[in-house]
Write a structure and sequence with these properties.
eight-stranded mixed barrel, 25 strands, 791 residues, six-stranded antiparallel β-sheet, alpha/beta, 50% helix
């Protein structure tokens, strides 16, 4: 770790200043380069963007108008098809008409009066033809006048597909305007005829004109005997699109120039065409009209008025740029003064930065800097190397302070620092943690012998006499040593172990050193016992089990998911929560085995209730294991569970480390469909940047915040802020540890998506879960809630 002079930037100050003329010339160049030119470019870009926006808006407005009018046309044509079939039904499903047609020689005058003239006069039919059971014309009327039967020959080709369809002799695509034999109605059917009507209705090409045509079976409307299916008389009715329909489109719907054409309109004429095809796929022609162009009209008006305003704005902008230029030229000398002030501030900031990481008395790294150095050294530690952390506490230092004064004590601290730096080597770091306590990090050592040698050398330096302010003083030291990775890889734990060893050395007579051993710390010994018992539990397979705590919707009335929680039924210690053994499993390499087993159990239970999601906690240590995403996906796939039902809960610590392995695993799991929940949100390093960077799906409010609801006025504000943050980022929010009705109500009002806690249910065994969920899927009546809370 290098120690620089905080005032090292002073030598560059003289080169930063120039003559006033040079300052003014430079100011002008900077003004042109950084103010005038960018402003002009920005103004031009804004003008171009505004013109483009107006043009685009006008085009979209015109396109929307064309689309609307096109929809109106198609709706009008569809309505005409339905009206044509509906008008036929009045005569096609009628006993007298069927009786008359059943005669050997039908009365044509009667058919004129009751069929042809009626359909023409009342419903504007332009051509009606009646066919017998063999599809031969027996009657025809065109434009209100009885026509020759040969008229049918001129339209037969156009209506032949409809005749075949009504006879049941052909099939085609579904048509919402017709009702055919032995076929279900179109799902979007708009027909207005009764269920007894059988008709084929479509767009057709008749004599080179677009028309709507409908062919309907003529059947009695009573229970009289009917002709055999498929041999009934047929009524063929035609209406041309270029007649009354087009007039209605122009007069009622305001569609100018509406007409049917055989070719596409020329775009230069201001007209627009859309193709017209039958439902049976035949191109009939084009519907052509002159669409309204409101966008272009508005654009012309805006350009005229906006041009004047833009010109005035540009003149004002030019005046503003000129004023700024004069101001910058006048203040060139002031800029030099400001630059001097900036350099002085920079120097002071450098000094403050230096003091933030160094002890002001000895210039050694302070506690924060030493802690960071140890952490970085652990991360860079090679597989075959070790790292040593030493804590050194001076013996009899208080006597020096008491007898010679604090100034002498400061001089002694400085002398001790110099001796320690000289004896530990250039690649290692000495730090002052505070008072008379020092720390040493040996970054690359081969074993305990080397560390013991450094400790002996340090003690030898401390035993030597110190000349302080004309007096000779003797002190000594007590040293505690912890080794990485043999005794752990956590910097805080290493410092704690070294501290324990140092106090053991001081308690053993001082002026000595001790390596940390597990026996020095009762908790370390206890962790070893837990590790041994945990390995035995994994071998036996009957002590670990999974409990499932329900998660409910915001109302607390519906179970929406479960959270799988591992438990240990210890033979002597009783039931243990995860906090008692998961850290041990992480340290001793068992966490992957336990985590995979819990995930497999959760998937097996999830199969029983496909409506519920299943949340499973993933340890940070497990998440940093190579291939963790593939392992999790494999377990879930083998259990035949949709990954979208599995929610993986992680803690904020894995996000803070910004590990590429963790990022890659999160991306892979999200791509597979897994949802990611951020557990215990707000208790660690909660940051908006982490949520944006890692793309989680849910945040879980820690129970420490929920517990304070109703007791601490600030608690509800914090919870509301967390919920608002989650919803603003499209995240779901779950509250843990809900124990009272008041907490549940406050969380529901705040907008929390899911609730979890003893108010609703404790964590249940699989058998209890079956009893709960199989009894009722909404189990949270007041009685159950009370029972859950008491449990």
């Amino acid at each position: 770790m290098a120690f620089g002079n905080p005032h090292s930037s002073d030598h560059v100050r003289g080169s930063m200043f120039h003559s006033p003329a040079t300052q003014i010339a430079g100011s002008r160049r900077r003004f042109i380069a950084f103010v005038a030119l960018p402003t002009v470019c920005l103004a031009a870009a804004l003008v171009l963007f505004g013109l483009w926006s107006l043009w685009t808006t006008a085009e979209r407005s015109d396109q929307a108008t064309r689309d609307r009018q096109e929809r109106e046309v198609r709706l009008a044509i569809g309505a005409t098809l339905d009206e044509l079939a509906q008008s036929q039904a009045g005569v096609a499903i009628w006993d007298p008409a069927v009786v008359e047609l059943g005669k050997q020689k039908p009365d044509l005058d009667w058919l004129d009066q009751n069929v042809g003239t009626w359909l023409n006069y009342v419903f504007n039919h332009e051509l009606d033809v009646i066919l017998d059971g063999s599809n031969r014309p027996v009657y025809a009327m065109e434009n209100g006048v009885r026509a020759k039967l040969e008229t049918f020959a001129s339209i037969e080709a156009g209506v032949r597909p409809l005749i075949d369809a009504v006879r049941g002799e052909s099939t085609g695509p579904a048509n919402p305007h017709e009702r055919l034999p032995n076929r279900k109605p179109h799902p979007d059917s708009t027909v207005r005829t009764s269920p007894t009507a059988v008709h084929a209705t479509d767009l057709v090409d008749i004599r080179g004109k677009a028309a709507v045509a409908s062919v309907m079976r003529m059947v009695p409307d009573s229970h009289k005997p009917k002709a055999a299916a498929g041999s009934e008389p047929l009524l063929v009715s035609i209406r041309y699109l270029n007649t009354s329909l087009m007039h209605d489109l122009q007069r009622v719907r305001g569609i100018a120039g509406a007409r049917f054409t055989r070719t596409v309109a020329d775009g230069a004429s201001g007209e627009y065409s859309v193709p017209l095809s039958s439902f049976r796929g035949r191109r009939i022609g084009y519907f052509t009209w002159r669409p309204e162009m409101p966008g272009k009209a508005i654009l012309g008006s805006v350009l005229l008025q906006g041009g004047v305003a833009l010109l005035a704005l540009l003149v004002l902008l030019a005046a503003l740029i000129a004023g700024i230029g004069r101001l910058m030229s006048r203040d060139a000398r002031s800029i030099a003064v400001l630059e001097e002030a900036r350099l002085q501030l920079q120097a002071k900031e450098s000094q403050a930065q230096y003091l933030a990481h160094h002890d002001p008395l000895t210039a050694l790294p302070n506690r924060a800097s030493f802690s960071k150095f140890v952490e970085e050294s652990i991360a860079d530690l090679g597989a075959e190397r070790q790292l040593g952390v030493m804590l050194i506490d001076l013996d009899r230092f208080k006597n020096v302070n008491d007898t010679l004064g604090h100034l002498a004590g400061d001089r002694l601290i400085q002398a001790v620092a110099a001796r320690l730096v000289n004896c530990v080597g250039a690649n290692n770091v000495v730090a002052r943690l505070g008072g008379d306590e020092f720390a040493v990090c040996i970054t690359d050592c081969s074993g305990t012998e080397q560390l013991a040698g450094v400790a002996e050398a340090a003690l030898a330096e401390l035993r030597g006499p110190f000349e302080i302010m004309g007096s000779v003083v003797h002190v000594g030291g007590s040293i505690g040593i912890a080794i990485c990775p043999a005794q752990g890889t956590d910097k805080t734990e290493l410092l704690r172990m070294a501290d324990i060893a140092m106090y053991r050395a001081k308690g053993s007579g001082r002026d000595g050193w001790r390596f940390f051993s597990p026996e020095m710390d009762e908790s370390i010994a206890n962790r070893r016992v837990i590790e041994d018992d945990l390995r035995a539990a994994l071998r036996s397979g009957d002590e670990l089990f999974v409990a499932y705590q329900p998660k409910l919707d915001a109302s607390g009335a519906q179970i929406v998911g479960l959270e799988a929680l591992v438990r240990w039924r210890h033979p002597t210690r009783g039931e243990l929560a995860p906090d008692a053994f998961i850290p041990v499993a992480e340290d001793c390499g068992l966490i992957d085995l336990i985590g995979n087993w819990v995930l497999g159990e959760a998937c097996r239970v999830a199969l029983n209730w496909p409506e519920l999601s299943m949340a499973v906690n993933i340890s940070p240590v497990q998440f940093r294991t190579p291939g963790v995403a593939q392992s999790i996906s494999s377990i879930v796939r083998e259990a035949d569970i949709d990954p979208r039902r599995i929610e993986l809960e992680v803690t904020e610590s894995i996000l803070v480390e910004d590990d590429e392995l963790v990022k890659a695993a999160l991306r892979e799991l999200r791509a597979e469909g897994f949802r990611i929940a951020l557990d215990d949100f707000g208790t660690g390093y909660s940051s908006l940047s982490y949520l944006k960077k890692f793309k989680v799906d849910r945040i879980k409010i820690d129970k420490s915040f929920v517990k304070r609801l109703g007791q601490d006025p600030e608690a509800i504000a914090i919870v509301q802020a967390v919920i608002a943050l989650g919803h603003a980022m499209a995240l779901s929010v779950t509250a843990e540890g809900v124990e009272t009705e008041e907490q549940g109500c406050l969380l529901q009002v705040a907008g929390c998506n899911e609730l979890q806690g003893f108010l609703f249910s404790k964590a249940l065994l699989e058998s209890e879960l079956h009893a709960l969920l199989n009894h009722a899927f909404t189990p949270l009546a007041s009685g159950h809630r009370a029972r859950s809370a008491s449990a």
